[in-house]
Design goal:
This protein has 300 residues and is an all-alpha fold. The chain contains eleven helices and two strands; from the N terminus they run H-H-H-H-H-H-H-E-H-H-H-E-H. A two-stranded parallel ribbon has the order 1-2. The longest helix is centred in the middle third of the chain and has 29 residues, at 117-145. It is globular, with a radius of gyration of 20 Å. The N and C termini lie far apart (49 Å).
Length: 300
């Protein structure tokens, strides 16, 4: 009798709950009609599944190889994009260069070092064309050197296109409302989270390359707000990040640790255009300024 699948961490029961609840809500509304409370929860779960996608890429959820592969395909269908894209765009690029000048998705690359609502909303649009060539280069390298992995990635595209095709054949309007729009919402948040966490942060060496968020949202979103701890320990499980973050807190500029995501969002993106004193301050020197050691940059 084959062994039952085993999670590496019991905390990932929460991840599995999100992966099950999202399609269940979509299927229920597909059958019974639009429910605003269910749709709002669906949109929240698309963000949660994006974080699960991120976490599963950094640290595989299961002890079994095939269970992890099945999870890749399941997340692909829920996310609306193959899971392999995190390797070239996130791990090999963003985690490697930490918002520095070689990070292709660095927020200050696009129109200067800013942190405002238009930049937040437009960031996913401007960063996607920069990242997609990484996917193609990655696939080309797999095709030349790891043909099995290449077809594994192509299988994710095939599964997603088949899934979309079947749903569109069943009912294109329901597919748009209950599948495509939620998937687009999740992908938009997945990309603009980079802006939330790094706009006006410092791309120079040190620990000031990311903004951290504390508060009640972290337990619901797998501690993704504790971003410096995650960057410094990319293979650590998300349940370990609160403990790890306390090691780095004294060495991070206080302005880069926010006690509340909601308060930060309202203050920085809604109020600061009218109240200049509420605007965030760039942590990097303006172009052409003499380089200086960032404050609070002492190593751990």
């Amino acid at each position: 009798m084959p062994a039952l699948p085993r999670l590496k961490y019991r905390a990932d029961l929460q991840s599995l709950a999100y992966l099950a609840a999202l399609p269940a809500l979509a299927a229920w509304q597909w059958t019974h009609g639009l429910s605003w409370w269910a749709y709002g929860l669906t949109l929240f779960l698309t963000v949660g599944v994006s974080v699960v996608h991120h976490n599963h890429t950094h640290l595989r959820m299961w002890r079994g190889r095939w269970t992890n592969r099945a999870t890749d395909y399941w997340i692909t269908l829920l996310q609306g994009h193959p899971t392999f894209v995190f390797y070239p765009a996130h791990i090999a690029n963003h985690h490697r260069y930490k918002h520095g000048p070689r990070d292709l998705a660095r927020t200050y690359r696009f129109g200067g070092d800013h942190n405002h609502l238009p930049g937040l909303l437009w960031h996913p649009v401007e960063v996607a064309p920069v990242l997609y060539p990484l996917f193609l280069t990655f696939l080309g390298r797999l095709y030349r050197h790891h043909r099995g992995a290449f077809w594994y990635c192509m299988g994710q595209y095939a599964a997603l296109l088949t899934f979309w095709g079947v749903l569109a054949w069943m009912d294109p309007w329901k597919m748009l409302l209950f599948v495509w729009i939620p998937q687009a919402h999740g992908l938009h948040w997945l990309l603009h989270t980079n802006y939330l966490q790094h706009a006006h942060a410092d791309g120079r060496p040190g620990l000031h390359y990311a903004r951290n968020f504390e508060g009640w949202l972290n337990p619901l979103c797998f501690n993704i707000g504790l971003h410096v701890a995650h960057h410094e320990h990319g293979r650590a499980h998300w349940s370990e990040l609160p403990t790890l973050f306390e090691r780095y807190r004294p060495h991070i500029h206080p302005a880069l640790t926010e006690p509340s995501f909601g308060a930060y969002w309202v203050r920085n993106f809604l109020l600061s255009p009218f109240v200049p004193s509420l605007r965030s301050t760039p942590r990097m020197p303006p172009p052409g300024a003499a380089p200086a050691r960032p404050p609070h940059a002492d190593p751990i």
